[in-house]
Amino acid sequence: MATQIFLADKATLDATKSNTDTIKTNVGSNADVASASGSVHAKIKDLKTALESSGKMKSQLFTSNGSFTVPAGVTVVWITAISGGAGGGGGINGGDYDSGKGGNGGVTSFGAFLSLIGGAGGGGASQYSGNIATGGTNSLTDVPPSASYANGNPGNTNNGAGGPGWYSSFGKGGDGGTGSRRGGGGASGVFIKDYPIPVTPGAAIPITIGSPGSPGVGNGGGGNGGNGGPGALLVSWS
């Protein structure tokens, strides 16, 4: 799904105020009513034209796979994105059991220009006393200024919490499963902000959104890990 967002610049806001201030409101006779009505309609039309022609920043948010068509006259876009968060590992409640590892998050990409690897799944809890479920880790890309949003916590730290996400849920790592031994938390997706990419007007650029990592299955009465969060990608241009 893609959501388009419009942000008016100062010039547009000033034009809006000017148009609003000049609308005739001193209405008395029927002739005045007709004149005022015509004035209102004319000013609304002027306002619509001003909004459409202003240099406002526009953005389109993708939360599922899709395609972005570069608008006419646009030669650069800015990308903010996160890949899929990983699932948390399963927990155990004692006994001779091992639990499942959380699944890795999926890749978020913008055509051939940008690819962000998903977070790694949290480790499953183990029966062996010396083994602590590991937290998932990020794999950084070679595209600056990409950065790991956060690794998952080991099963014995912060209750195996997963890494945080963008706007809470996008790319979040799943928590480790509950039990006497908790699973490790899944890593967040790799995050990038306001990355400039040169583009060609009219080009259709495919967008892939990273899938959430699956939860590791608990064993021996332990809980399953948490799901990872899906990725997201925001395209901005002016």
TrEMBL record:
Provide ranges: composition bias, Low complexity: 150-159
**Segments of skewed composition (Gly residues):** 160-185, 214-231
Query: Annotated region Disordered: where?
Result: 143-185, 214-238
**What is the official name of this protein in its record?**
Uncharacterized protein
What is the species of this protein? Desulfitobacterium chlororespirans DSM 11544
